[in-house]
């Protein structure tokens, strides 16, 4: 027991010694002094060694040493960061060089191919070689390029990888073009032999695409392979054989695209395949169902392969989604062009897109659901057009289908769908406004006007529901289409519809007085409605429309019947609204407190302009009275002069109660104008009684105003 106790004590003493040494190192004490002090504490009869290896050292000591070494390395920070930046710059520089080196072989291979073709053309023009020899030399060049590529692959497989890919692709292009030239242009090759050679080169191209994993090479092979259908067409092959060949090439290449994740090559192959099918159909113009089924099959394969390659968290997913959507639209367009009755194939496409949408919904892939639902509804719209159910039904169904698509996009919060269907819905509205009228009253066109307005209201309610404004402080910065611009769209459409109704059924002289009346009421009402209901820009739009209506009413024009009284009433209403707004600004009423005070509008200038425009429109009303023979000319002359003096008086009186410099200037300008009119124009026209009454009224008003201005001046001096 004593021996075991001594061993335990010795181990503890060693650990304490190691910890003391580590502590002394951290404090900056020399190791030798630490050892001497520790030896004095240990028993002298114990001859055991003090030094320890890393294997027998305590793990706490090792951790302390690692911490100490890391602390010693920390001060050197700036040089490391600068060197890292230099390395990053070098990497960027090297990446640019690699890009250039990647591009140069392809450019030079294209130059080589063009040089060979032009060289053969020169030789052909000179007549040195026969056509057979030229074709043979071209095949030798193609095989030579393959041999050089194989040799470089075996000798330097890594360093010459890009160059060998270019050589393989160049050999393929030269071989295919040589085969086509030998069979079609020079008539050297037998058509059957040319077909076998072409198939051999196509098989070779697919093989190198699979082995080399190069997307550019895959695009070249697909493009060149789809030139063969034109050779087959030249050989008078059956259309079914050509279509079958295109489908085989397209589907075979999809396996390569899936293996090596070549999305761009997939899009190119689909586009080239659809163009090839459409061109072949255009040359034959028979067997349309074969081509329609081919388009449907191509699009189905595209959807399947695209879904396998789709990366939902990729930064470029929007590009891939847009390409899928665009290529699918190309398919729908091709079907409409090929089919005489496109409703059945379009219905099949609708089922395919709907099934894909259901699968996307099941997998919670909202963006794919967006695309598939959009394509489904677009196909439905094309079916409606293809059915040719009549112009009336088409007028109703097309906007309704677009409305449903837009409503669905709002519910799904699908960005692409919202953009597409907003454009389609807006285009339908524009076409309807430009092409159809509201006459007769009981017609599909008129009903569609009402339904479109209902659609807009429903969309506005849904926009308010799905995209409410959350924070008051954000309202001053963020501009929202739903809250700020969509009310303008609804209002503009409403007044266009009202104007059509007014001109068609209410107005006798083609002047939309009812529209102008409702516009004035709407503008006035918007001044008392909170911005959260109508947005920030609807008031400005209505004020602008009110100004246009004002200038529309200024000229005197001939009207008859009820329009005479409507004309005068609407003008008078405009004058009263302007006066009411001026009064609210002067009294700092509701409009001023709720809206004007929060803007940077110049109150003084606004009031001066309002007074002037009210006077001009009042002057126009008096002129219209005279034009319609509703009053004597002497009375009109007198009232015009009184209007000038009253406007000047009111302007000066308003300016005397506040700091309204522009209003005061307006008053001082109008007074001499009124006096000049009174002296030089009115004295000869008025009889003595009217002249006396007019002068007394004007003189009394002038004295009152002068007294008011003098009192104001005295108060300012005090």
UniProtKB/TrEMBL annotation:
Protein name in the entry: DUF2339 domain-containing protein
Alphabetic keyword roster: Membrane, Transmembrane, Transmembrane helix
Cytoplasm in keyword set: no
Top-level division of the source organism's lineage: Bacteria
Pfam family, one: DUF2339
Regions of compositional bias (Basic and acidic residues) in chain numbering: 28-42
PANTHER family named in the record: BLL2549 PROTEIN
Record keyword Ribosomal protein present: no
The species this protein was found in: Ureibacillus yapensis
Disordered: annotated segments: 28-56
Residue ranges of the TM segments: 100-120, 132-151, 163-185, 191-211, 216-232, 238-257, 264-283, 289-310, 322-338, 344-361, 368-390, 396-412, 419-435, 441-461, 481-499, 511-530, 537-558, 564-582, 603-622, 634-653, 665-683, 689-710
